[in-house]
Design brief:
Layout (H helix, E strand, L loop, with lengths): L20 H51 L1 H17 L6 H27 L4 H27 L3 H25 L3 H10 L3 H8 L1 H6 L8 H21 L3 H10 L6 H27 L1 H10 L4 H35 L7 H26 L3 H19 L5 H26 L1
Amino acid sequence: MTTDPTPPGPAAAHDLPGESTGRSLGRVTVATVIAAASGYVVLLLAARHLGAVGYGVFAVFWAAYGLVTGAQNGQLQETTRSVRTAGAEGVGRSRPLVVNTVIGVGLAIVVAASSPLWAGKVFTDERGLSIALLAVGVASFAVYAHLCGALSGTLNWAAFAVLLSVDALIRLVGAVVAVAAGWDTTAFLVITVIGSVSWCVVLATSSTARRTVGISGDVTSGRLAVNTLTAMAAAAASAVLVMGFPVLINLTTNLRGTPDADDTRIIGALVLAVTLTRAPLLVPLNSFQGVLISRFVDRRDRRVRSLGAPLGVVAAIGGVGVLGAWLVGPWLLRSVFGADFDLAGIVVAMLTAGATCLGLLTVTGAAAIAAGAHRWYAAGWWVATLVAVAMLLLPLDVEARTCAALVVGPVVGLGVHLIGVLRA
């Protein structure tokens, strides 16, 4: 039984059929809704089942895993660009699967070998298990990211949508089982990484995925590796601002001394609110990275004009979200997650504004990498990250500096990206 209707049989890598724009958007949108809804339910189950303290432990590991795998989104992005360009130009000079697998294994080794330097400052419980799960997870995620990029570059959105859905549903099923069985935080640490094995399921059930996984790229393996590592460097900065931001909040707060009980509660509420306010925009945008990069590659002769529609959609959705967050955000947090998660309306609104700025930065980043402006892409994200860290070090309360970091940093980085796109 297969997950898509493409019949098996031999085919050249770039002869794989793509799909129409409307159909592709529909398939990826459905998969994104599934991923977003599953993510919300996992967070809800974790928060209600583990409580504020347990959720804080889980959220930090979730953020650390997202920090590393977020950097690996550079593999997805460069694979998409390379495969799409190779298909358009009719060339094939490398095998991205080999390059991505080597990078993934190397990254796993780096995580494990460097853990004595940082694990004690990040993981408070289950340290050994957390390190092992992180290393295994990032190695597996390298193949997942490659397959996402290969399917995006060949416009095979049916298999791509299945891959996104399976990844999310594996975690959801795991969370439901954990709550039903009464398992503790340890189970949720395992649940965080098990979705990355979804590529095994898709390769076993989809003939299109099996034929696409070994597709060729437009540049030599050495150049592809350099491009991929550059994209990963930028994606690492992106991951710091997106998935790794709770770790930054903890680290910068601890620099001021041990937080008291009230600060600990506020940080836990902020971590949850940051995650929830981002999901409506950033989960779809991350899912649509392949669509965006393919769009910008196909419209490389009119890059600036092609940016207008995606930026407008993100800004409009974000504006509505800011108003809704101000009016009902605090009530929703208290009603759904409990009295411990209490924040002012202006704080929730500013966190949503920060999520919107990150969304805009994600779109301009996709345009920069599609234009081949890898260094400008990396510079934009790292400038945004450094500015955000500077905001977190301001002599303000944790709520104010968190909001400032999430708004100011991305706006500055967005400007860098636009300069890179114009110069390219």
